[in-house]
Amino acid sequence: MNRFKLLFLRHFFNKTPDNFILFVAKILGIKIGVNSFFRTPDYVDTLNFSIGKNSFINKDLFVYSHNYTNAKITIGDNVFIGPKVKMVCVDHKIGSSRQRAGEHIERPIIIGNGAWIGMNVTIMPGVVIGEGCVIAANSTVLKNTHANELYVGTPAKSIRKLN
Ligand SMILES: CC(C)(COP(=O)(O)OP(=O)(O)OC[C@H]1O[C@@H](n2cnc3c(N)ncnc32)[C@H](O)[C@@H]1OP(=O)(O)O)[C@@H](O)C(=O)NCCC(=O)NCCS
């Protein structure tokens, strides 16, 4: 059954219009809390994905997780995610010159309650975005962020604490 759901997710879910996406996501078993809204994504390839309550995911979310067990994506409550945000849970160790994409690695991503992720941000494998963080548009987050700080740039660095 999950295999069928995944196939459906990859081929049809990502083309489902905004006003229908919540309904389809819930049928597929993606956990979405009350009062959360999810616009049509660019690409989501996992059912291993949950969204808390009062959260908003804007258009063209790109999730690369391949439904691997350890590549779970957890989005908290009251989170706002801007358009074209990328969450990448899959990585490789750098291999030998014969094949640089070496040993496969999969890591979860967690977005803490209250965070705001600006548009076109990339979040790398294993990153935990602390509660109440703001990640400025176009940043790339390589490491965990402390709660209630503003992070900017590539790699994203904290530029100030937020009240
Ligand atoms: C971060 C943001 C919220 C601004 O917060 P702010 O507290 O008003 O910050 P400021 O504009 O005072 O900028 C503070 C510093 O960060 C820099 N900065 C802000 N946003 C930046 C970004 N996206 N990329 C690089 N640097 C950025 C500013 O240049 C400034 O640097 P300086 O002190 O050297 O001049 C805003 O820039 C942003 O990224 N918003 C997201 C917009 C978005 O994605 N909208 C889609 C709908 S969700």
TrEMBL record:
Gene3D superfamilies reported in the protein's UniProt record: Hexapeptide repeat proteins
Keywords, comma-separated and alphabetical: Transferase
Pfam families listed in its UniProt record: Hexapep
InterPro entries the UniProt entry points to: Hexapep, Hexapeptide_acetyltransf, Trimer_LpxA-like_sf
Record family assignment: Belongs to the transferase hexapeptide repeat family.
Protein name per UniProt: Maltose O-acetyltransferase
